[in-house]
């Protein structure tokens, strides 16, 4: 008997909603594309490339637009015999120094079997090896360094590379660096000399709003989802949620893909709003669980205190009130409560993780204070809690109070 059976009732090409898919068309980024093309124009004109720094939050199309334009550029330079363009991509995510980035680049450019070891050389030696490799390529070389902020403050390479010709390290090869980052602080904290050259052209990608996300989803759904297999309002729902949260196209696409999976698992022929809502709860729950894994027991208890206040319809509430709730949960758990100051720190961490939101209230001469509330659905939070905290009776009570008060 067969256990696995192909289900393709809603997806025509599910991969088109995945991370590795490169769209043929970029929606809603006409201005950024124009500015980007302007920055790349010297390459076509035969001059030295500009260095470009692209930044914006996660999922706002920095990589998609870069890939799209560089593909286009590579095919368009073919019309000019005097331009020899090579593009080298490197994701720096796991590389946290100039040294490591330089080693990785050298090895990407070398033949298999002639790679260098990732330790043991003086930094300048590795840089010189990199110049040798770049010089051997000749023509114009564009180095695309994605997630460039991983390099941290050990950014000497970012100073050296754009100046390689000026300093006589490269003679034949013209080099341009495209740095991509979603860390706004990184740019500001760069050494001013690095900033001057690397950020010669800056492109900022703003978050998408809901109508923009809906268009992006629509054009992707045309490829990914069978005709008539997505109900009215589903794309708008996914777009609105992602817009409110992050403005990220990735988040919107993930939500749509998961909604399709939920529909398929129920053997439905069409993705309905209900599937999208289930997908949303599941993603929220995963987010809370992921955040919770990083918390200590007391961080989790502080969160449960806010969940409990939510069930009782007592949020937003001040640290003091959260603390009292937390202290009583500690008692039930047979744990000594931490001081209020430490609980305050846990609440700040939860806010950073996006699980709580806080508003600042002014209270005249006594200074400002924060009021906290859940930033994820109550049901996602309580379910995530029951998986990680051994406080079943208390959690059950909170769940019941929540349901009596119609909190979802
Ligand atoms: N304007 C757009 N049109 C079509 N698809 C888009 C657009 N913007 C983003 N996407 C899609 O959304 C997903 C995330 O985009 P992308 O990887 O370019 O984001 P990013 O800004 O580089 O994010 P990160 O900083 O996390 O790397 C990809 O699947 C991409 O194809």
TrEMBL record:
<feature type="domain" description="AAA+ ATPase">
    <location>
        <begin position="48"/>
        <end position="203"/>
    </location>
</feature>
<dbReference type="InterPro" id="IPR015163">
    <property type="entry name" value="Cdc6_C"/>
</dbReference>
<dbReference type="InterPro" id="IPR027417">
    <property type="entry name" value="P-loop_NTPase"/>
</dbReference>
<dbReference type="GO" id="GO:0005524">
    <property type="term" value="F:ATP binding"/>
</dbReference>
<dbReference type="InterPro" id="IPR049945">
    <property type="entry name" value="AAA_22"/>
</dbReference>
<feature type="binding site">
    <location>
        <position position="208"/>
    </location>
    <ligand>
        <name>ATP</name>
    </ligand>
</feature>
<comment type="similarity">
    <text>Belongs to the CDC6/cdc18 family.</text>
</comment>
<dbReference type="InterPro" id="IPR036388">
    <property type="entry name" value="WH-like_DNA-bd_sf"/>
</dbReference>
<feature type="binding site">
    <location>
        <position position="220"/>
    </location>
    <ligand>
        <name>ATP</name>
    </ligand>
</feature>
<feature type="domain" description="Cdc6 C-terminal">
    <location>
        <begin position="303"/>
        <end position="385"/>
    </location>
</feature>
<dbReference type="InterPro" id="IPR003593">
    <property type="entry name" value="AAA+_ATPase"/>
</dbReference>
<dbReference type="InterPro" id="IPR055237">
    <property type="entry name" value="Cdc6_lid"/>
</dbReference>
<dbReference type="InterPro" id="IPR014277">
    <property type="entry name" value="Orc1/Cdc6_arc"/>
</dbReference>
<dbReference type="InterPro" id="IPR050311">
    <property type="entry name" value="ORC1/CDC6"/>
</dbReference>
<keyword id="KW-0547">Nucleotide-binding</keyword>
<protein>
    <recommendedName>
        <fullName>ORC1-type DNA replication protein</fullName>
    </recommendedName>
</protein>
<feature type="binding site">
    <location>
        <begin position="60"/>
        <end position="64"/>
    </location>
    <ligand>
        <name>ATP</name>
    </ligand>
</feature>
<keyword id="KW-0067">ATP-binding</keyword>
<keyword id="KW-0235">DNA replication</keyword>
<comment type="function">
    <text>Involved in regulation of DNA replication.</text>
</comment>
<dbReference type="Pfam" id="PF09079">
    <property type="entry name" value="WHD_Cdc6"/>
</dbReference>
<dbReference type="Pfam" id="PF13401">
    <property type="entry name" value="AAA_22"/>
</dbReference>
<dbReference type="GO" id="GO:0006260">
    <property type="term" value="P:DNA replication"/>
</dbReference>
<dbReference type="Pfam" id="PF22703">
    <property type="entry name" value="Cdc6_lid"/>
</dbReference>
<dbReference type="InterPro" id="IPR036390">
    <property type="entry name" value="WH_DNA-bd_sf"/>
</dbReference>
């Amino acid at each position: 008997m067969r256990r696995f059976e192909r289900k393709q009732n809603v997806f025509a090409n599910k991969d088109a909603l995945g991370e590795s898919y490169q769209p043929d068309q970029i929606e809603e980024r006409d201005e950024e594309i124009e500015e980007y093309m302007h920055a790349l124009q010297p390459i076509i004109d035969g001059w030295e490339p500009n260095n470009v720094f692209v930044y914006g939050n996660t999922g706002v199309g920095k990589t998609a637009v870069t890939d799209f334009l560089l593909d286009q550029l590579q095919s368009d330079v073919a019309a000019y015999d005097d331009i020899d363009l090579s593009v080298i991509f490197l994701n720096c995510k796991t590389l946290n120094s100039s040294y490591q980035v330089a080693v990785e680049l050298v090895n990407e450019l070398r033949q298999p079997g002639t790679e260098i070891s990732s330790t043991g050389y003086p930094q300048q030696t590795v840089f010189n090896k990199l110049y040798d490799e770049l010089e051997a390529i000749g023509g114009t070389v564009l180095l695309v360094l994605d997630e460039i902020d991983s390099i941290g403050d050990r950014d000497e390479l970012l100073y050296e590379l754009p100046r390689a010709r000026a300093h006589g390290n490269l003679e034949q090869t013209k080099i341009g660096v495209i740095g991509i980052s979603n860390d706004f602080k990184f740019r500001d904290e760069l050494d001013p000399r690095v900033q001057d050259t690397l950020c010669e052209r800056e492109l900022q990608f703003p978050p998408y709003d809901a109508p923009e996300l809906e268009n992006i989803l629509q054009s992707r759904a045309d490829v990914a989802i069978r005709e008539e297999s997505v109900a009215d309002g589903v794309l708008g729902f996914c777009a609105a949620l992602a817009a409110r949260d992050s403005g990220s196209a990735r988040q919107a696409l993930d939500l749509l893909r998961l909604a399709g999976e939920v529909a398929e698992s129920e053997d439905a022929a069409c993705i309905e709003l209900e599937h999208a809502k289930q997908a949303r709860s599941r993603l929220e729950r995963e987010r809370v669980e992921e955040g919770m894994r990083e918390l200590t027991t007391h961080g989790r208890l502080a969160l449960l205190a806010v969940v409990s206040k939510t069930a009782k319809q007592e949020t937003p509430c001040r640290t003091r009130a959260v603390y009292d709730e937390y202290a009583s949960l500690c008692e039930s758990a047979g744990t000594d409560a931490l001081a209020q100051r430490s609980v305050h720190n846990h609440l700040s961490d939860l806010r950073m993780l996006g699980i709580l939101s806080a508003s600042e209230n002014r209270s005249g001469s006594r200074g400002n204070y924060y009021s906290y509330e859940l930033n994820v659905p109550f049901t996602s939070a309580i379910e995530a809690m029951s998986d990680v905290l051994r406080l079943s009776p208390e959690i059950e009570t909170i769940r019941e109070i929540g349901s009596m008060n119609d909190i979802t």
